[in-house]
Amino acid sequence: MKFAIQINEGPYQHQASDSAYFFTKAALEKGHEIFRVFFYHDGVNNGTRLTTPPQDDRNIVNRWAELAEQYKIQSVTKDEDGNEVVQTELVVCVAAAQRRGIVDEGEAKRNSKDATNIHPRFRISGLGQLVEAAIQADRLVVFGD
Length: 145
Hints:
The protein is α/β, with parallel strands linked by helices. It has five helices and seven strands. The strands form two sheets. The protein has a five-stranded parallel β-sheet with strand order 6-5-2-1-7, sandwiched between helices. Strands 3-4 form a two-stranded antiparallel ribbon. Helix 1 (about 15-30) packs parallel to helix 2. The longest helix has 14 residues, at about 15-30.
């Protein structure tokens, strides 16, 4: 089965991110496909590289990044020159990210910010990515309010 995952809550104030992570990991271990993981509302905070939990606590951001790396949660497309382009499918909603100060290079430049803070295994994109995921997947599973 092909799943799309939506996470609406931040990494440390709600169980949603942990539950989504364990669901996604279990699905992948059973041979299912994850089309995309979309972080929305406060869920975009799962994508910041600046999260530094205490040593005895779990690092939820790194967990997601490692899972994406291990199971190749990514897509491969071609650019206009026919070259393969590999991009992560840990997608952070652009509007929600802007409201919460999560920026990549493009958003930093566009909004005159002097730094970025998105984890390199995540990418920022629009809500259309969630719509596409819901269409392409067999099931869209939503975690959080």
